[in-house]
Amino acid sequence: MFSCNTSTSGHSVFLLTGFPGLEASQHWVSIPINLICVVSIVGNSIILFVIRTDPALHEPMYIFLSMLAASDLGLCGSTFPTMVRLFWLGARELPFDLCVAQMFFIHAFTYVESGVLLAMAFDRFIAIRDPLHYATILPHSAVAKVGAAILVRAVLLNLPEPILLRSLLFPQISELSHCYCLHCDLVGLACSDIQINSLVGLVSILFSLCLDSSLIMLSYALILRTVLGIASPGERFKALNTCVSHLCVVLIFYLPKLGLSVLHRVEKHNYPALAVLMANLHFLVPPLMNPIVYCIKSKQIRQGFLKRFQQKRVDVS
């Protein structure tokens, strides 16, 4: 912890943290993390390409999936550069402005992904509850408005945080808990009164992750009630099967965050390297797993990819 005797506003330098106790072998430890980033970028780019180029996939479910892939790419782009700088170049220093900008984009893309998962849950409920009017209830214009609302909400919820951070005093040099910048981490390093900043951060989380997760659970309760009202067991299974991919993605998104929260409160100081690893993976696992889950569970995505791949081979031949 650095002293607040020489605190400044807007001119501080933050030191990124790698794996405590593993500095000598940090390059090797970071190889799997870098591979996860590369695979995530390639996988989500493929999802976007397949959905964009296949007219059969221009349906609300797949448009929301493309939004999810875009938010995953944004999250990778927000975290990957500082990981590369730290693990491979040994550059720990990050100026205040860059740190705040990274914090904004990390939180914004996280909130976008949470909002898209909520929209996908609503999409599945409509598809099961009223399949005959599905296209009428969710036309492309409505999907575009939902996507715009998700993006605007993410920006508005995160915009006050960097503005308020500029009014705080920080030590000239501060050490972060991770290899990227988060709001709770920055606020904890401030030398000023942080009550307003903490309140804004809490409100931001309540109206994004907490609200979305509650509404997702409500959507699945309504889906379950609708499915139980279907007479045919075969139709029940078919209806539930359309939700498996989305449910897996929801669990992949929220469970690592829950695990990291528990770890920070219970064993963070006993196992600092594990805490840093979990902090990295809780941002990297969803972008990695989302394309894999949908490629495995969605026949339409697989067919679209194979069709484009075969077409490319024919063009090359």
TrEMBL record:
PROSITE patterns: G_PROTEIN_RECEP_F1_1 (PS00237), G_PROTEIN_RECEP_F1_2 (PS50262). One of its GO terms (molecular function) is G protein-coupled receptor activity. The chain crosses the membrane at residues 31-51, 63-88, 100-122, 134-156, 199-224, 236-255, 275-296. It is found in: Cell membrane; Membrane. InterPro entries: GPCR_Rhodpsn (IPR000276), GPCR_Rhodpsn_7TM (IPR017452), Olfact_rcpt (IPR000725), OR51/52/56-like (IPR050402). GO terms for biological process: cellular response to lipid. Residues 43-294 form the G-protein coupled receptors family 1 profile domain. Keywords: Cell membrane, G-protein coupled receptor, Membrane, Olfaction, Receptor, Sensory transduction, Transducer, Transmembrane, Transmembrane helix. The gene is LOC101709703. It comes from the Eukaryota. The keyword Lyase does not apply. PANTHER family: OLFACTORY RECEPTOR (PTHR26450:SF100), OLFACTORY RECEPTOR 56B1-RELATED (PTHR26450). It is a multi-pass membrane protein. It comes from Heterocephalus glaber (Naked mole rat). GO terms for cellular component: plasma membrane. This is Olfactory receptor. Belongs to the G-protein coupled receptor 1 family.
